[in-house]
Amino acid sequence: MVSLQGKIIKLRALEKEDLDFLFALENNPSVWEISGTITPYSRDVLTLYLDNAHRDIYDVKQLRLVICTQDDEAIGLVDLFDFDPKNRRAGIGIIINEEGNRNSGAGTESLQILCQYAFSTLQLRQLYANILEGNERSLHLFKKLGFELVGTKKDWIFNEGRYKNELLFQKINK
Q1: Is residue 4 part of a domain?
Q2: What is the pLDDT of residue 110?
Q3: Domain membership of residue 162 as a residue range
Q4: How many domains does the chain have?
Q5: 105 CB contacts (<8 Å, ≥6 apart)?
Q6: Is the per-residue pLDDT at 68 higher than 70?
Q7: Residue 148 domain-assigned?
Q8: Coiled-coil regions in this chain (predicted)?
Q9: 93, 129 in Cβ contact below 8 A?
Q10: pTM value?
């Protein structure tokens, strides 16, 4: 079994107590571009989401885990999405909410742990990540973890009056 704990972070399931953290993160306009959000979420909607967060990845095709410091402070989220057990692949994404928690190694360790879980426990063959062109931190992070650029989706995201390319990265477990 893969441990979901690293040296500086641990990953855990969403809990009802995460409502305030989730509310702050999902309603932070500075991260909407990467999360695909275009409107705020109410506490009621997020409460319904948390009520269903226990559902199995094979059922809902997504796994969302909270990134916590060793003293259990929630600092971000990491996801497997578009889970496809037949073709043994999934998308992977990460968000660290506060600027002060970025560039601390938390993102690297979170993705390493989730990749290991996806490849060993879920027996996936490949993971992919969609990264906006110009998001240098994410580009560096995913390249460092062995993801390879496999394509460009031209003018894929429209935000703040202009189109941006989205880059497709892939990691194959050989």
Answers
A1: no
A2: 96
A3: 9-172
A4: 1
A5: 8
A6: yes
A7: yes
A8: none
A9: yes
A10: 0.91
